[in-house]
Each structure stands twice: as structure tokens, then as C-alpha cells.
Amino acid sequence: MTLATVGLVLYNLAQKNQSATVHPFQILSITYVIAAIISVTIYRAVPEMGISSVKEALLPAVGLGFTVILVELGFMFVYRSGWEIGLASTVSNVAASTVLLPVGVLFLQDKIVPVNLFGIILCLCGLFFVSR
């Protein structure tokens, strides 16, 4: 969770500081070339992570690639339209969690206990107050 949190903080800071004069797909192209170089380097350097066939990895990778582009463009446009960094991140995460909650319960056998439900209600209340 620490890795994900640090990544999200750095991600939002990097997104917020993109130049509005550069074409979004130019930024994404450069970003993904750099990410590919880093990923291949780590993949080759750490062989104990296991090796799977390209065929096995392809479909999930295509889906992940598509969704990453949506996230990247979404935040790029949100920040270019003037949203504050803390507010944009909060709204998007609470909104995504609100959608993912029933998906997890209905399709992935996730469980909700009363304390989780209370936390969700608090998050939605917080979202209401933050967005005012």
C-alpha cells in the first residue's frame, strides 16, 4: 500500500505540472516509452519474478494499457481545466470506490462489514463537503 500511495502522490504531482501547451498524446507517448524502458530493464534484471508467455500476458496488458490511457488523459484534462490537486484526486478516488464497491460485492465475492459501510458513508459525506 505504501508503494501505491507514494506512486499516486508522485503521479498527481507530475500530472498537475504538465504543460498545457504540449499535446496530450505527445506527453503520453514519451511517458510510455520511458515506462517501457524502465519496465523491461526491471523485468530483465529480476528473473525470479517468473516468466509467462506473451500470449498469457497479452490480453490483460491490452486492457490495462487502455485503462491507463483513460486515467492519464482524464487527469490531464482535469488539471488543465483548473481543478486543485487534492480535490481532483479525492473526488476521483471516492467516485471510483463508489463504483467498485458494488462490483466487488456482486462479482468478486468481496464482503462488506458494518465498519466498512460506516467508512464508506463517511467518505461520501466528506466528498459532499469537499466539493462545495
Summarize the structure in words.
This protein has five helices and no strands. The mean pLDDT is 87. Helices cover 79% and strands 0% of the residues. The protein has two domains: 1-83, no CATH class; 84-132. The protein is mostly helical and 132 residues long.
In one word, what is the shape? globular
Task: Determine the fraction of residues in helical runs and give it as a percent range.
Answer: over 70%
Topology, number of strands: 0
Radius of gyration: 18 Å
Q: How far apart are the first and last residues' alpha carbons, in Å?
A: 29 Å
Q: How many domains make up the 3D coordinates?
A: 2
Tell me what portion of residues adopts beta-strand conformation. under 5%
Please tally the helical runs, counting DSSP H or I stretches of 4 or more residues. 5
**Class from helix and strand fractions:** mainly alpha
Mean pLDDT value = 87
Give, in order, the helices and strands: HHHHH
Biggest beta sheet attributes = none
Low-confidence stretches: none
